[in-house]
Amino acid sequence: MGLLRKIFIPFVGLVLAFCFYSAREDFKPEMLKGKRVIVTGASTGIGEQMAYHLARMGAHVLITARTEAKLQKVITRCLELGAASAQYVSGSMEDEAFAEHVVKEAELLLGGLDMLILNHVGNSYFNYFDGDVGHVQKLLKINFLSYVAMTVSALPRLKDSRGSIVVVSSMAGKVGFPFTAPYSATKFALDGFFSSLRQELIIQKVDVSITLCILGFVDTESAMKAASDVVLVSPAPKEECALEIIKGGALRQREIYYKYAATKIPLLIRDWAPELLDYLIRRSYNVENLKKN
Ligand SMILES: NC(=O)c1ccc[n+]([C@@H]2O[C@H](COP(=O)([O-])OP(=O)(O)OC[C@H]3O[C@@H](n4cnc5c(N)ncnc54)[C@H](OP(=O)(O)O)[C@@H]3O)[C@@H](O)[C@H]2O)c1
After folding, report:
1. Quick one: which of 63, 61, 123, 126 has its CA closest to 94?
2. d(CA 212, CA 256)
């Protein structure tokens, strides 16, 4: 019976997943043409790359982050790449009112909304948890509560357009990685909230999709600076990552895993042998290289 559960059921799951995968609609860049999209945290990193992809696809992009000068540069590039329109709103997601303001601006500037891409992330440290509860609270505001606030404000417009919410999360929001305790807490919170909300929207027959994006290590400047000396894993390219997130949102997928093998296989191991995964994770760090405070 134990053997049946361990081998047969996962095998049937894999076959069903394969059938489902082959029946999926293909992504076409035209799917984003003329769509009105908000991308948060788009002054740099994966968010910036998403803005460029959306621009090439002919979308209306509204980007946001704190640093106005960087946002202006991204907007200029988006217009060069062919965006239907490109605008920005600057401010901090630590302030709930700002999160709501961004959605109101989208209504005003774009006349509605088709896709909300929640991607921004507050600065944290990559090291042993230092006991600072205030930092955890601050990060929860930026990485989690502002995502909720933007979703609440955007839902009426997304219901009108049968739109999509895309939530950028991490492997650190699915399994316990060391040295990211506050960050990890915020990403687990996203999974809980948005997976529950997705169920409620389906029960209520509300046609707004929620795509949770589970990312591995990606070569953005901030991630490389924080972790490249310690993490013994090669980072994936941010440009490709950004495209996969947009594809997942456009195809209204439940979750996307990037890169697939590097993120999905550890999760399969977790379900069978969680202690083995914990052990493998601990082995993938060069702890000697952690920054000394
Ligand atoms: N890179 C990776 O290895 C990796 C792995 C897993 C998951 N992810 C996820 O992917 C997403 C993007 O990561 P990334 O590496 O591209 O990050 P990043 O390069 O550090 O960019 C973060 C963005 O968030 C903005 N931001 C920071 N604090 C903010 C605040 N208080 N209010 C508003 N905006 C703020 C930043 O702009 P300003 O500083 O101008 O405000 C920037 O545009 C995040 O959700 C992250 O958790 C990344």
Report:
1. 123
2. 6
Write the DSSP string, 5-19: IIIIHHHHHHHHHHH
The pLDDT tens digits of the residues spanning 145-183 come to 999 999 999 999 999 999 999 999 999 999 999 999 999
Question: Is 183 considered catalytic here?
Answer: yes
> 68-81 and 45-56 are packed helices; what angle lies between their axes, rounded to 10 degrees?
30
* Catalytic-labelled residue, pool 52, 88, 147, 183: 183
0.85 exceeded by the pTM?
yes
What is the position in ligand 1's atom list of the atom closest to the CA of 66? 41
Domain at 29-286, CATH from 3.40.50.1100, 3.40.50.10190, 3.10.20.90, 3.40.50.720: 3.40.50.720
List, for residues 87-133, the tens digit of each pLDDT value: 999 999 999 999 999 999 999 999 999 999 999 999 999 999 999 99
| Ligand 1 touching residue 180 (CB < 6 A) | no
Whose alpha carbon is nearest atom 2 of ligand 1?
218
Conformation bin of residue 71: beta by default, left when phi > 0, alpha when psi is -120 to 50: alpha
77, 156 contact by CB (below 8 A) = no
